[in-house]
Amino acid sequence: MRTAHRLRLAAALLLSLALAVDGLGLSSLPCPSGLPALSGGRGRAEAAPAVPPIRLVVNGRELSPDTPPLLVEGRVLVPVRLISEALGAQVAWVAAEGRVELSLGDRSVLLTVGRDRAMVNGVEVPLDVPARVVGGRTLVPLRFLGESLGAQVRWEAETRTVRVDCFRVTAIRWERAVGRGRLVVEVGGPATFRVAAVGPPEGTWPRLVLDLDASLSLAQTVIPIQDGDVMQVRAGLMSTAPDLTRVIVDLQEPVRYWASRSPDGREVWLEIGYKVTRVAWEPRPGGQALVIYTTGPLEWQAAELLDPPRLAIDLEGATLAQGVPASSKPAAEAADVLLGVRTGQFRTDPDAVRVVLDLRRPTGYRVLAWSGGLEVFLSAEVAGVSWEARPDRVRVVVAAPRPLVCSTLLLEDPLRLVIDIPHATVEGGPLTWEVNRGPLKKVVMAQFQRNPDVVRVVLHLAYHAGAIPVEVPSGLAFDLPVSFLYGRRVVIDPGHGGQDPGAIGPAGTREKEVNLAVCLILRELLSSQGAEVIMTREDDSAVELADRPALANRVGADAMLSVHANAFWIDSRQGFEVYYYASHGSSRRLAQAIHAEMAALGLNDRGVRTERFVVLREARVPAALVEAAFLSNPDEERLLLDPAFHRRLAEALARGLARFFAP
Q1: Cα-Cα-Cα-Cα dihedral of 419, 422, 424, 430, to 10°?
Q2: What is the pLDDT of residue 23?
Q3: Which member of 333, 511, 627, 637 is catalytic?
Q4: In what order do the strands lie in the sheet with 55-58?
Q5: Is 627 assigned a catalytic role?
Q6: Would you say residue 141 has pLDDT above 90?
Q7: Between 514 and 155, whose confidence is greater?
Q8: Do residues 355 and 292 lie in contact, with contact meaning Cβ atoms separated by under 8 Å?
Q9: Which of 64, 254, 293, 341 could disulfide-pair with 373, CB 3.0 to 4.6 Å?
Q10: Under DSSP, is residue 509 helix (H, G, I), strand (E, B) or coil?
């Protein structure tokens, strides 16, 4: 009995295996080698070895279903969600109707549990075996599922593996990396591909043609790139039996390229080498530079060579574009140090382009890399510093054989302007010049830094002058405006204060507060230009009217300016006025100078007027009084509350005082 039972069990296993193989291949898959064939007679059967499970590999990834494949009537059923989602399909389960809905690209499949018919793209097709639910999972025939979704189903007898491949081009993008640009084609798995370079037919561009054994699922089939030699990428489906997608890369000119897969096999990479397209001496933000233009970022290395002196720069992974000259003469701006430039293909496999700068003498250099190439800066020798005093300014010139650029920094205590000149050298130790002309007290120059080279020039200032860059053919220059306020003693009088609020606007703005805010800014401006400023009040203090001109008389002020805001019973009145006392001729000149600068503020100009105000009449120094705007006018009240207007007004008053003191 036991022997008969074993024989029946072995026969059942062999029959099951044969049916499984036949079911997967629909009679086209071979019987696994090494296994005996079954006959319909009653002969004796040998004991069969243990049969390993069937492996499921979808798009190159092996799946591990929690419900194993099921053999039904010679067909293999598999979990529909596991396989479908591995192929990238969308799966929906309608529980009330026992229906599975699948979609992938332009394909759709509807299956109902227990029915021997399904809908594929709206067409009813028969099923050898209906879908069924096992262990909470919906199982469907594997070959029907795969082929309905456009996949290829293959049986590998040696490894008992079913491979389901449904490669689809779902995205194409361009990536920039150091050394190469990369066209990335997403296919979802190890699809077979071929690539070839195609010469330009008449009237067309050269191109690369990439063919993939995959279908196409792209919303945009023409992708503009415009990067380096790559103009655009076009994609199209060449055939569907079998699927073949063609990707065409349109180029400016032929390129070096490499094709490969990503490490996970889900992308095809088409890498394109960068090129050197032009070499030219040009002005750059960092100064005059030899610019090496490339189609993308490259690794580089520079070496100084002697006898004769030269600088060699190797650009790794690069080739030369068509039309790049082998040699060129230097621009006039570089003739002090550069004899010429040579460019050539230094090496192939791996590629490298070498650019050689032939030098008159060894010199410092700096190379800056950017996405479109390299900038090579050669250090210029600074010959010295000179200055020229003019009535309204002092011009400082840093002499060099070619134009220089710089950065500036203003430092206080002591006041000095620091000028740093990159890519420059100077011989000798710190050089010092005593000047004492206008705002310039002293100049100090030294080599501040080596590798990269930086020369530092320090201008020691008597007051804040504001350095104005001057365009010169070589070196660099600054104008330091002479301050006509330097050394002048000015009394500033913020009108009203304390118990006296002055005019009060419709919104409650008090004149005394506006006056003080403007005068504090004016004090800051005048002091920065070297004036000695004395305030009649610095806070909300009460100051007697007669004490204000008395202070100016006592300190021997060179000028006095009283600042107010106006008011009138008709709230539509607006504009500014400047007053002086008629008996003081110099006061009239002061009022006119203040008026000329205030006119630029855009307010209604009510002119220069005379009046017997105490602060004007009692002053024995040039004195003027400003009514800046009408606080009684709602629009001008809002203006007088604006801190930005306070500064604009203070700047106009400072310019007016400087105009008055100008020779």
Answers
A1: 40
A2: 38
A3: 627
A4: 61-63, 55-58, 161-165, 152-156
A5: yes
A6: no
A7: 514
A8: yes
A9: 293
A10: coil
